[in-house]
Amino acid sequence: MNQENLSRINSYLSFKLGEEEFAAHVGKVLNILEMTKITEVPKAPEYMKGVINLRGTVLPVIDTRIKFGMAPTVYTTNTCIIVLDIEMDGESIHVGALVDSVQAVLELDENTLLPAPSIGSKYKSEFIEGVANIDDRFIMILNMDSVFSSDELSSMKDKAVETEKTSEIEEIG
User: Fold this and answer.
1) Fewer beta carbons within 10 Å, N or C terminal of the chain?
2) What are phi and psi of 102, to 5 degrees?
3) Domains along the sequence of the chain with CATH
4) DSSP string, 111-123
5) What kind and span of H or E run contains 86?
């Protein structure tokens, strides 16, 4: 399916970080994994938890809560890793994002999306494409490509490759 058709789909995967609910376009979500052992990466940024081996490729995993300025993830039976396809400089990069729990797949009409809050939001508004109001719950719709800057992604990719070369990572998938 090409990118144009994908962007016409109005399905979003919603997930929780603390008490807040967020959603990412399903076109960005490749997989949802149960929590697994994450191999730490020396000298990685604080939000980068480490890497996992996903079917023979090294996948950098970030703590989404730290990335958004929240307290680090507390692991529960619901904690999982959402595998995302991030677009960077025309290149596709896969990243695992730790979330507290996956909620649902939502069908959101563009007309139901409210603009991102311009002030007072504790999350960087450039990450937020809009807000959906569903059953009196506000769900922040994230622009997953802008959550990661290209510098961060290339740094995470480099750290992941370094780790791959220096250690054996348990394979999953």
Assistant:
1) N
2) -90, 135
3) 3-172 (2.40.50.180)
4) GGEEPPPSSS-SS
5) strand 80-88
Rounded to whole angstroms, how far apart are CA atoms 94 and 96? 7
What is the 3-state composition of the chain as percent helix, strand, coil, each rounded to the nearest 5?
Answer: 25, 45, 35
What is the per-residue pLDDT across 105-141, written as a single tens digit (0 to 9) for each? 999 887 778 887 665 555 556 788 889 988 888 899 9
pLDDT digits (tens, 9 = 90+) for 79-95: 999 999 998 778 888 99
Task: Please list the alpha-helical segments (H only) found in 12-128.
Answer: 64-67
Q: pLDDT tens-digit profile of 40-56?
A: 988 888 899 999 999 88
pTM, 2 dp:
0.82
Q: Alpha carbon 12 to chain centroid distance?
A: 13
Reading the block at residue 170, the tokens are: 């348990």
